[in-house]
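Figure 3 (text version): structure tokens given as input.
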């Protein structure tokens, strides 16, 4: 299998990679075209005219039955309105950008804890898909699986024994979890649920297909457990704030990526706080120093 921008991954499935490579998107966002004579487009990608034209070239004269969006980050969802206008297809997703937040994350948002990295704040699907909702495109049905963690309204889609995993599980990188959009406790639960589905392959939002899903999911959960252990060990030396923890734990990471790493650290601290394992020095959280309970 090559890493070409346009590739047939299996019969009835084409991947078109958007031209938006970056440290946060890897080689670019994967847009998938599913079907034969009647199509579904999954994750249309960033609002890029060239990517829109490339998608329309792949679609040709074939009707598009639906545009599916795994989550409302701009690199996945921003092209949906233009593609919908061009094809007449309905945009389907879990809901608006903030849909599905837990009570904990709503409290954090109300307290002014902002994530918002790349959030498509104006995203409004034509149809909201609940967990278990089925679409029946030509060839095989797609089943929506609500799997929050990377974002509260994140959907995966089961198809022919495989799963389109969005940004929940990727092969090239671990997943950014940035509260209040991301929720570490929900991420763990979703990974465990995805593992029980025993998919034969994962088609992620970025990077190549994952041919050993269980192994990759186990690695992600172990990675999070190891990071938690590092944070707790660091706090044994005394209270630290997220920035200081990031500098200590991500010393080998380029400075330009420290803001994203700091959000991951904050996600761990909030999870530990909810489990009564750490306590913040004040209510601000982002600037607070945390100590072991």
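Below: residues designed for each position.
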């Amino acid at each position: 299998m090559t890493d070409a921008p346009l590739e047939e991954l299996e019969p009835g499935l084409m991947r078109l990679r958007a031209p938006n490579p970056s440290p946060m998107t890897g080689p670019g966002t994967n847009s998938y075209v599913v079907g034969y004579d009647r199509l579904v487009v999954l994750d249309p990608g960033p609002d890029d005219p060239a990517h829109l034209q490339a998608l329309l070239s792949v679609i040709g004269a074939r009707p598009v039955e639906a545009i599916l969006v795994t989550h409302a980050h701009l690199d996945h969802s921003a092209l949906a309105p233009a593609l919908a206008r061009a094809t007449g297809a309905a945009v389907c997703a879990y809901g608006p950008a903030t849909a599905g937040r837990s009570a904990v994350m709503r409290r954090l948002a109300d307290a002014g804890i902002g994530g918002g990295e790349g959030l498509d704040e104006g995203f409004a699907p034509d149809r909201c898909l609940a967990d278990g909702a089925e679409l029946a495109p030509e060839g095989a049905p797609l089943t929506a699986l609500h799997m929050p963690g990377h974002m509260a309204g994140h959907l995966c889609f089961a198809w022919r024994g495989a799963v389109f995993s969005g940004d929940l599980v990727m092969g090239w990188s671990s997943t950014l979890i940035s509260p209040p959009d991301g929720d570490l406790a929900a991420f763990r639960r979703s990974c465990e649920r995805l593992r029980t589905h025993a998919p034969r392959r994962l088609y992620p939002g970025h990077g190549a297909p994952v041919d050993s899903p269980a192994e990759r999911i186990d690695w992600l959960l172990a990675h999070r457990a190891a990071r938690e252990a590092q944070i707790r060990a660091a706090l044994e030396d005394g209270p630290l704030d997220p920035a200081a923890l990031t500098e200590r734990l991500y010393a080998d990471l380029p400075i330009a990526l420290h803001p994203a790493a700091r959000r991951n650290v904050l996600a761990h601290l909030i999870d530990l706080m909810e489990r009564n394992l750490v306590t913040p020095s004040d209510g601000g959280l982002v600037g607070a120093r945390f100590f072991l309970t």
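The CA atoms of residues 3 and 208 lie 8 Å apart.
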